[in-house]
Amino acid sequence: MEEAAVQAELGTGPAAKMAQTNPLPGPTGPWKITAYDQENFQGKKMEFTSACPTIIECGFENIRSLKVESGAWIGYEHTSFCGQQFILERGEYPRWDAWSGSNAYHTERLMSFRPICCANHKESKMTVFEKENFMGRQWELSDDYPSLQAMGWGNNEVGSMKVQCGAWVCYQYPGYRGYQYILESDHHGGDYKHWREWGSHAQTFQVQSIRRVQQ
């Protein structure tokens, strides 16, 4: 099948309803990803340079492998940017466990994805707060932390976060394991006052490792 450049834009319906939590970036930028409907880069393939709210409309039932050629992306378990999130940085992902890593539960579904417009690895900065609504103890981060507790954070939870610059991946467990939450400076104005704003799959304040998104 011939490769095609897909320019998907957010319209109405379920995708529009998700806009508050996962607003869609503009369609232009230095991003390129190639998706395949079979593992190990086999089967039907299609090239994307912008967000895709549903791969079903592109003739795919599921994405089983992909190559990120430029930019950083977020993949989602369900259509309309819902469900479990997966960070997709430059490189090759021959099967689903290459992007899902060690999650709280494994899913082989990847049904929508979008680029991360604000990724800025060198300039990334965020502040974590002990309690929701930016209350309690706070700690400013500008580096990767495989274990927040080992670096002096008092517990295994983070109440709220402010992303001043760049984009970050927060993980449920130490060592960059468990559920992934991608937080961006250009979403919510960079303010994430409660775990409900981290993603539609978030169910707890538990965050134990954080790293910057690679450009």
TrEMBL record:
What Gene Ontology biological process does one annotation of this record name?
Answer: lens development in camera-type eye
Entries under Pfam families matching the protein: Crystall
Boundaries of each Beta/gamma crystallin 'Greek key' domain copy?
31-70, 71-117, 124-165, 166-214
PROSITE patterns attached to this UniProt entry: CRYSTALLIN_BETA_GAMMA (PS50915)
**Which domain of life does the UniProt lineage start with?**
Eukaryota
Q: What Gene Ontology molecular-function terms does this entry list?
A: structural constituent of eye lens
Which keywords, in A-to-Z order, does the entry hold? Eye lens protein, Repeat
Can the keyword Repeat be found in this entry's annotation? yes
Physiological role: Crystallins are the dominant structural components of the vertebrate eye lens.
Q: Which family does it belong to?
A: Belongs to the beta/gamma-crystallin family.
- The protein, known as: Beta/gamma crystallin 'Greek key' domain-containing protein
Lineage of the species this protein comes from? Eukaryota, Metazoa, Chordata, Craniata, Vertebrata
